[in-house]
Design a protein that fits this description.
This protein is α/β, with parallel strands linked by helices. It contains eleven helices and nine strands. α4 packs across α5. It starts with a helix and ends with a helix.
């Protein structure tokens, strides 16, 4: 049950349309449910404003189906599953009405919301960074945010990024995703007046050390207002960007 649902019940009590006993019945859901192999957190949305998300890697399709069903039965309207393989998705899809986004490796029950707010710009250094970018973009969209994708605008051809300057500067948050030397986050940070979230990727040749080079570059950014998430963590960046974007909404 999310915050809006709780408020609706309480307003019903306040208006005299719902009795205290009826409200207690509606609010009786436990904070979490012990499934043995997982404990879905049904009060996550009440505490944080966003329901719990399922991390699909390492879970069996049967476990994902069980967790998803438990969340839906508890009143969660939309279930987001990250890092889900195509094979696992097909097994889950045999039991649940679910949508799959190949590039992002994300599955979604309940569909993307039609009403979205603000604007998040998701930019990449290269085409090879798009899978991480799509994980970030789909996550943000699933959480009710408008997302503009600006791909393949790395510093090897800086004019490409400058060609999208108006779009960048109209965003509330920029998610800058890059491998190699990871310079894109610093460059973006010097061009906009909003928060920039750097996402280092594991894209690159040997000395990039699987994204460590990009991670260190972003952490050492000389541009103010740049924060950094973990290597390839598109989900974390999309989630954080969504929270920032919706402040004051």
């Amino acid at each position: 049950m999310d915050r809006d649902s709780i408020l609706e019940i309480l307003r019903g009590v306040e208006a005299g349309n719902v009795t205290a006993e009826e409200a207690a019945l509606l609010l009786r859901a436990q904070p979490y449910h012990d499934l043995g192999y997982a404990k879905p957190d049904h009060h996550r949305a009440l505490r944080q404003g966003i329901p719990e998300v399922i991390y699909g890697a390492g879970k069996t399709p049967k476990q994902i189906i069980g967790i998803s069903r438990d969340m839906l039965e508890a009143g969660q309207k939309r279930v987001l599953i990250t890092r889900l393989t195509r094979d696992a998705y097909e097994e889950v899809a045999a039991e649940l009405d679910i949508e799959y986004f190949d590039y992002a490796r994300i599955a979604l029950i309940g569909g993307l919301p039609e009403q979205r707010v603000g604007k998040i710009a998701v930019i990449t250094g290269g085409t090879s960074d798009i899978p991480v970018a799509e994980e970030s973009a789909i996550t943000a969209e699933a959480l009710g945010n408008n997302v503009q994708r600006i791909y393949d605008v790395g510093v090897a051809g800086l004019h490409r990024l400058l060609g999208s300057l108006e779009e960048l500067q109209s965003a509330r948050v920029v998610v800058a995703i890059a491998g190699m030397e990871g310079a894109l986050a610093s460059v973006a940070g010097g061009l906009v007046d909003c928060p920039v979230i750097g996402v280092p990727t594991s894209v690159g040749y040997g000395a990039s050390f699987g994204g460590i080079s990009a991670l260190l570059s972003m952490l050492n950014s000389c541009a103010s207002g740049v924060s950094v998430v973990n290597i390839d963590n598109g989900f974390g960046a999309g989630y954080l960007a969504g929270m920032i974007n919706q402040i004051g909404e």
